Amino acid sequence: MNATDNPNVDESPFIMVEKGGCSYVSKVLNIEDARGHAAIIIDDRNGGDVEEKNMPDDGRGNEVSIPSVLISYEDGEKLKKFYTDNKNNKTVLQNIKLEINFEMENKDNTVNYDIWYTPDMEKVYEILTELYAYHNVLYKYANISVHLVTYSDFDYKDSDTNIVKDCLGSGAYCLDGKKAGIEKEGGGVLLVKEAIRQQCILNIDSGEKDDEGNDLTYATYFKYMNYFFENCYSITDFSEDCSYSAAKYASVDEDELDDCYKNSFVDRNKKGNYELTSKNKLLEKNQDLMSELYINKLPTITINGRVYYGNWKAEYVFDALCASLIKKPKECYEYGTFEEESSMSSLTITAVILIVLFVNIAIFLICRVFIRRRIQERLNSSDINSKIDTVVSSYLAMREVKH
What we know:
The protein is α/β, with parallel strands linked by helices. The chain contains twelve helices and nine strands.
């Protein structure tokens, strides 16, 4: 059954369901298939704090195109009771207005977006290549962060100090070199090292500026990734030499990159291959953030700390960033799909008000003169009639006297 088949439902129905039985994404997709325009999911735990809960993705979140919210059990009961009490009252049901408000996290009119990935993901390189142009027009309002993600070995323990194949940090940070197409031994280690370098690249500013002298933030990272994609990733070369060639192209100082890489390891002062057994501060931080945000698949984009489920084309991501701004800059209308509402400037509004005021004053003065003239004409006419009456009366009186 479709939501719009119900005569008591308007053209943009919100559909309310209870949690449980299937994933959040399945519920929202089912509501969307039923022509619902928004999904309201009621928590199944009485007293549960929905503010601390997320609705995890089951792998199909990018198929969702309607908004959804999770509300408390108590609020759900109130809504259900209201509907039950009034389900036969068409007047009440047809006049219900329900609003879902998604508050903006940043009140300073900026948006933060993060990309979570591993260095062997082609999808990320492709979108970054396209997104660079969009970021350049929105960089004053948008801040990008990247989080290179690794995985712990299945048997890893925090106390381990042994060397683990395809891993750094005694199995704390691992990636699959074979899956990335690296045939030679130690491919996983190459990937993890490249992950650290890419994380460092974002923090290094080349000092490039725009035409107005403003810093082009993150231009270094985009240039590095573009070069690496075309010249290293394309031939499955994750070596240090190719990485430093990309860094040179992006105007990154080799010593600065090297220092960032080494300083990211806790035990950098140990002799030998300290990376193989040392904890890494950058990768450790990314793993903690990933758990905190309940990110369970890669690659992922988060906008203001919330997972982006939309299309992975640069223009769609650009629109999502603009949608997160309280006051959209002109760039959102020039390069995105937003249509600017016709509005007059304060100067134009003032001019219109003054014109209307002058016109009204002119009309008032004209009417005043016209009315005064009419009154005067009437007074003059009245005086003439009075004089005529007087003359006629005198004439008649004189005739009577003669007769």
